[in-house]
Design a protein that fits this description.
Layout lengths: L1 H10 L4 H5 L2 H10 L4 E2 H12 L3 H13 L3 E6 L2 E6 L2 H11 L2 H42 L11 H6 L9 H4 L1
Antiparallel strand pairs: 1-3, 2-3
């Protein structure tokens, strides 16, 4: 009975989202977006990241190949895998039927993100202008001998440069 199930699954087509639903297969596809990779190189990376064996990685590669997400070509003793564009295209086509549900929300999110970036940029420019003005005032308050005038906070407290109380503040 189990053999019949395996035969049916082997010859049936999985839904694109079922294929992409597995994190191992998604990671394999991410690795393949950089170009062709040998099954050994893929097994090493996936084995390190997910802690699965080389035969388990081979099963995931087989699913990707049989479901139209990856191609394989022999090169000597190696098998080189690459992304087959038809699988992701099929998933994109199926998902496009739902664009009306999330595209307006994504557009609104994009607008809010752009607004936040603009506000941060304007705030940074304002902060930079205030800092430049403060430096300019500090530079102008320094006389030619290099002695600076008392800062504003000392003046507001009625103290002179030498730290004694100003006569005006006593009145």
């Amino acid at each position: 009975m189990l053999d019949l199930y395996k035969w049916q699954c082997k010859h049936c087509r999985m839904h694109a989202l079922d294929v992409l639903g597995d994190p191992v297969r998604r990671r394999i596809l991410e690795l393949l977006t950089d170009g062709e990779a040998s099954s050994g190189a893929i097994a090493t990376v996936i084995g390190d990241e997910f802690g699965i064996s080389q035969p388990a990685v081979s099963q995931h590669l087989r699913v990707l190949r049989e479901q139209g997400f990856a191609t394989v070509r022999p090169e000597g003793q190696r098998r080189l895998y690459a992304v087959d564009p038809s699988g992701p295209r099929e998933a994109r086509e199926w998902l496009s039927a739902f664009d009306g549900f999330w595209m307006p929300k994504l557009a609104a999110l994009d607008t809010e993100l752009a607004r936040g970036r603009r506000q941060r940029r304007l705030q940074a420019a304002t902060d930079a202008a205030r800092e430049a003005a403060k430096r300019k005032r500090a530079a102008e308050s320094t006389d030619a001998s290099g002695v600076s005038e008392p800062p504003d906070d000392k003046q507001s407290k009625g103290r002179t440069d030498d730290g004694t109380d100003d006569e005006k503040s006593k009145e």
